[in-house]
Structure formats: structure tokens, C-alpha cells
Amino acid sequence: MVLTLVKRKNTMKIVEEALTILRRRGEKSLKLAAEIIVNEEIISYSPLRKALHYFLQEIRFGAPHSALISLACEAVGGNPDDTSLIGAAMVLLAGAADIHDDIIDNSTVKNSKPTVLGKFGRDLALLAGDALLFKGLTVLFESCKKLPMEKGERILKLVENAFFDLGIAEAKEASFKGNLEVSPREYLDVIKGKTSIVEMYARIGAIIGGGTLQEENALGKYGRTLGFLTTLRDDFIDIYDPDELKNRLTNECLPLPLLYALQEPKIKSRIMPILTKDITEESCLEIVGIVESVKDVQKLRRNMRTYVREALKLCSFVHFPHIQQELKLLLLAAIESI
């Protein structure tokens, strides 16, 4: 019992330390993004301004994105303050994608808070996402103009490619709605498409910081791994949450561990009757107990730890101990309690 409590306390410490890193590194860009929207005179309609303010101030979305740009920049010897404006652009662009994704998935609550969709309705959510998108593109272009031409052009191309990859992944995922026959391989393909965004953040930071192409590639792979692991973490957590699991069953794709479980006929025959009834905390725990026994799920957990080790090896070129520690903590937080 004592060992369990100590382990749980250590787990929470790692996650809290990772969140502290993200908040500290992302705060400046997040505040700048909020100021840009607040000072945008063209957005004069009060309900729309309230929706945008809620998203940027209450939900405080965006810090992880700009934080990784800052971290990658400093990892190659650059000044993280140089990433603030482009970080703000990423907050706005990623925010637009997130709001639109909530509309597609009909996600009205996230992390125990109403989404913009849940609080303001579909129409205002769509328009809020559009406003963030167009302003984000404007800020991105302005920030790239301040960089040497080659760097600016490379960053613009990275953003274009990454968001196209994200769009394709979202389109594929939308086709999975209500389909319990989706294979793990199909869903993994979607996850990999989404992780191109996190890779992009790391590459942008390396470019702004003046890193070599080898360093940029290493940090890009680190970012892709981090994005992959955090998505898998969310998938494991969603199985414990009745509301999230209900929404994924109806409006999204089932979490990857469940998809693996449904590949086994005997396991599927035990899970399907649970999914066809009202999903409660008790039924979630029952599903978790079944999924835990699936060999592919156990293998997935082992692989996640292997990915952490491989990503850390990629970053062995980093000469700053505090940066190495931050890179490590973000990865460890993604697999804690999984």
C-alpha cells in the first residue's frame, strides 16, 4: 500500500513538472495570441469576442504548441524569446484546428470544461475557429517576414505540409464514425498523420535557433514521437471516462487499446454487450479489466517505453543539461501510469 502511494505521488510529480515546463515556455506566446485577438477591432460582435476570449483565456489552449518551439530553439543554442511571435501564430492556428475538430467530433466537454462548441454552440464555434485561422495565418506570415528569407520560406512550407497532413488525417478519422470494424493499422495511420503537427513545432524551433539540418531532423523525430505518445496516452485515459468513451463510440473512432481488443473474437464477444448498453464508470472499469489482458495492448505499452528511449538518444547532441531534462520529462509524462 505504501509503495503504491509513493509510486502514485511520483507519477503526479512527473506530470506536474511537465505541465510546469509547458506553461512556463508557452505562456508568453499564449498571452501574445490573446492580446492579438483582443486588439483585433474587426471582431466587433460581442458573442464572437466572448467565445474567442473563453478559448484563449479560460481553456488556455496552445501553451504546449509554442512551448515545444521554444524548447527546440534553445536545444540548438538559440534564444527562446525569438520564438514568441511565431509561437503565437501557432497558438491561433492550432486553436482553429482544435475548435473545428470539436465540431466534427461533437465534443462539448474536454478535461471537465465545456469546449467552445459546448458553451457557445455550433455556429459561433465555427466562426471562432475561422477567426483564429485567418488571424493565425496573418501573424505567421508577418513573423516569417522578420526572418531571413530562406528560414521564413522553409517554415511556411513546413506549416503548409503539416496542416495538410492533419487535414487528411482528420478526414480519414471522420470516416470511422460509428465503425467498430476499424483496424488498429488504419487508426495508427491517422495518429501518425496528426503527429506531423508536433514534428513541425520542433522543426520550427530548430530553424529559428539556427540548428543544423541534422539537429532539426533529430528534434523533428522527437516531436513526432512526443505527439504519438501523448495521443496514445489520451486513448488509454479515454477508456476510463464514460463521457469520452460514449462520444468516441458515437462521433469518433474508438481508442486504440479497444480496437486491439476487438480484433480477438472471444474478447470482442465480452466487450460488445457492454458497449451496446449505457456506459457508466463501472462498465468502463469492466472494459479496462478486459483490455488489460490483450497481448497487443501489453505490447503497445512496452513499445511506448521503447519509443521514449529512442527519442532521447536522438537528442543526445543537446549540450545543456536543463534542456535534456525538460525533453526527458515531457516524454516520461506521456507514458506515466500507462
Task: Report what the structure shows.
With 338 residues, this protein is mainly alpha-helical. The protein has one domain (12-335): Farnesyl Diphosphate Synthase (Orthogonal Bundle). The chain has 16 helices and 2 strands. It has helices spanning 2-38, 46-58, 63-75, 84-105, 116-120, 122-145, 149-174, 184-194, 196-208, 213-238, 242-251, 256-261, 265-275, 281-291, 295-314, 321-335, and strands at residues 109-110, 113-114. It has a two-stranded antiparallel ribbon. Strand 1 and strand 2 form a beta hairpin.
Global outline: globular
**pLDDT averaged residue by residue:** 93
Structural class: mainly alpha
- Radius of gyration, taken over Cα atoms and rounded to an integer in Å: 20 Å
Give the total of beta strands. 2
Proper CATH architecture: Orthogonal Bundle
Superfamily at the CATH H level? Farnesyl Diphosphate Synthase
- In whole angstroms, the N-to-C terminal distance is 19 Å
Number of domains: 1
Topology of this protein?
Elements: H1 2-38, H2 46-58, H3 63-75, H4 84-105, E1 109-110, E2 113-114, H5 116-120, H6 122-145, H7 149-174, H8 184-194, H9 196-208, H10 213-238, H11 242-251, H12 256-261, H13 265-275, H14 281-291, H15 295-314, H16 321-335
Antiparallel strand pairs: 1-2
Helix pairs in contact: 1-2, 1-3, 1-4, 1-16, 2-6, 3-4, 3-9, 4-6, 6-7, 7-8, 7-9, 9-10, 10-15, 10-16, 13-14, 15-16
